[in-house]
Design a protein that fits this description.
- The protein has five helices and four strands, in the order ααβααβββα.
- By secondary structure, it is α+β, with helices and mostly antiparallel strands.
- Strands 2-1-3-4 form a four-stranded mixed beta sheet.
- Helix 2 crosses helix 3.
Length: 190
């Protein structure tokens, strides 16, 4: 008897093939889901970085604009305050010209004690006010009170052998305005 050929190994059954396909499908789904989550997380981080950079640029631009606006506002406020102060000073000098006596007294007291030949120049209309209001300081220092038509009302100029003290109103005004960062003369130029 002839020998029987060995039977070919039996192939997988339909259920086994379907189970393998289902397992492969499930594995592919799991791998795809995992890779999708990784890709989504990467996209979220990249998007968040882009948005943070854009928002940062927007905030920086906004801050720069605010800083510029604040600087412009400060200059405008200082200019307005200086104009208002100038009007107040002018009104005060006009309303209370006797204040020049205090200015002259302070200026004379600021002269060095070793100074001699002190002369105090004031506007002719201020002469009697200074003579009455600062007489004691003038006499104590041996200062001579001199009228000068070139002087503005409300100020004085002190000259001595050791120097000069400029207490003219326009000079003091220029110094005060400079403190506010303004270059505004006391008198309007027509």
């Amino acid at each position: 008897m002839p020998e029987a050929e060995p039977a070919a190994p039996a192939g997988p059954t339909l259920e086994e093939v379907q189970a393998a396909v289902a397992e492969a499908r499930q594995g592919g789904y799991q791998d795809g889901y995992r890779d999708g989550l990784v890709a989504l997380e990467g996209f979220k981080q990249s998007f968040a970085q882009q948005m943070a950079a854009q928002i940062g640029q927007l905030v920086a631009a906004f801050n720069a604009q605010i800083d510029t606006l604040e600087a412009e506002l400060a200059v405008t406020v200082a200019a307005t305050a200086t104009q208002l102060a100038r009007q107040v000073v002018r009104a005060e000098v006009a309303a209370r010209p006797e204040l020049v006596a205090r200015v002259a007294e302070e200026a004379v007291n600021a002269v060095l004690l070793s100074a001699r030949h002190i002369r105090v120049f004031v506007h002719p209309d201020d002469l009697p006010l200074v003579a009455a209001g600062a007489a004691e300081a003038l006499e104590a220092r041996g200062a001579r009170l001199m009228p000068s038509a070139q002087m503005q009302r409300g100020g004085c100029l002190i000259e001595s052998d050791v120097g000069r003290i400029d207490a003219r109103i326009d000079t003091r005004w220029t110094q005060a305005a400079a403190v506010l960062g303004q270059d505004m003369p006391y008198e309007d130029k027509a």
